[in-house]
């Protein structure tokens, strides 16, 4: 339905996006996961025809979007990371303004605004000035503005940044409903692993302008299928114990957070016996050991050597 081919954007010396390829099938939610600065927003700008790529193509139903952007724009809704609202207008007035920009007929606009206000859970706040809204309410109204013309594809750029957990959950459930009830195709960008795991059918992981992994959640996690992740809880953080683990060349990663030490090693390595041996050698006291199934966070650490939110 929507495809990017060798999409590239360079700004003088900065290589923001470096020849990425991806696609969206009709009716699926696809996650674009990566840290701040990974190039996600630039990629979205090129896909939605707002940024001209240095090279590459964007195709919508086999039509070249760069040559004929209107063919996509009529079917596309974009929820930007930065709020695009007028604080001195009410919720309804904001939607009326954006509906007029989208050239929705006056006789249809009131009905569509009523429907959207219910969808985003603001039908009881429609006469309230936006400047009095919470961050979460503004985010929901921002989504509503993109839904007025009933888009076939919805692109959402970090739609839950800086809001409370309750509003965040409401937005995630709204995204699910739009996909299931409206069969809307959604491209969802985030640097929150748990959001992408909850929502998405397929995932692209992006870092420093490149797509470094793609597939279903299970396919991406299988990147670590040959490794095991073990968490050790110590009585107190013990530097001698940690240093001893790091000396072992077969252990591929050691992550320390307070009293917890996370170790990643090949499955054939007898980690349990080694940990108790190291504790005895260094005088560390182990309070518990957990075996973890791989997460997307583990995959990102494995691929880049750093945490997603570093």
From TrEMBL:
The keyword Amino-acid biosynthesis does not apply. InterPro entries: AAA+_ATPase, ABC_transporter-like_ATP-bd, ABC_transporter-like_CS, P-loop_NTPase. The keyword 4Fe-4S does not apply. GO terms for molecular function: ATP binding. It comes from the Bacteria. Keywords: ATP-binding, Nucleotide-binding. SUPFAM superfamilies: P-loop containing nucleoside triphosphate hydrolases. Residues 2-233 form the ABC transporter domain. PANTHER family: LINEARMYCIN RESISTANCE ATP-BINDING PROTEIN LNRL (PTHR43582:SF2). This is ATP-binding cassette domain-containing protein. It comes from Lederbergia graminis. The lineage of its organism: Bacteria, Bacillati, Bacillota, Bacilli, Bacillales.
């Amino acid at each position: 339905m929507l495809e990017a081919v060798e999409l590239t954007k360079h700004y003088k010396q900065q290589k923001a996006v470096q020849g990425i390829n991806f696609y969206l099938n009709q009716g699926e939610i696809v996650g674009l996961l990566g840290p701040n600065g990974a190039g996600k927003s630039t990629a979205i700008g090129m896909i939605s025809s707002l940024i001209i790529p240095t090279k590459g193509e964007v195709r919508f139903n086999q039509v070249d979007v760069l040559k004929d952007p209107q063919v996509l724009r009529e079917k596309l809704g974009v929820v930007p990371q930065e709020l695009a609202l007028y604080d001195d207008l009410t919720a309804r007035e904001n939607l009326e303004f954006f509906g007029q920009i989208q050239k929705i007929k006056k006789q249809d606009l009131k009905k569509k605004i009523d429907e959207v206000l219910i969808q985003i859970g603001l039908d009881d706040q429609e006469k309230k000035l936006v400047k009095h809204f919470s961050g979460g309410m503004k985010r929901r109204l921002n989504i509503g503005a993109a839904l007025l013309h009933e888009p076939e594809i919805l692109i959402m750029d970090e739609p839950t940044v800086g809001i409370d957990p309750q509003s965040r959950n409401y937005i995630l459930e709204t995204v699910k409903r739009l996909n299931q009830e409206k069969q809307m195709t959604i491209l969802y960008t985030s640097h929150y692993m748990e959001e992408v795991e909850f929502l998405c059918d397929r995932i692209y992981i992006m870092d420093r302008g490149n797509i470094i992994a793609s597939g279903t959640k299970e396919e991406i996690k299988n990147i670590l299928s040959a490794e095991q992740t073990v968490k050790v809880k110590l009585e107190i953080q013990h530097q001698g114990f940690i240093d001893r683990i790091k000396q072992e060349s077969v252990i591929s990663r050691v992550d320390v957070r307070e009293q917890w030490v996370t170790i990643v090693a090949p499955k054939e390595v007898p980690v349990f016996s080694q940990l108790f041996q190291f504790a005895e050698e260094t005088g560390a006291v182990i309070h518990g050991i957990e075996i973890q199934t791989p997460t997307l966070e583990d995959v990102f650490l494995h691929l880049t050597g750093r945490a997603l939110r570093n």
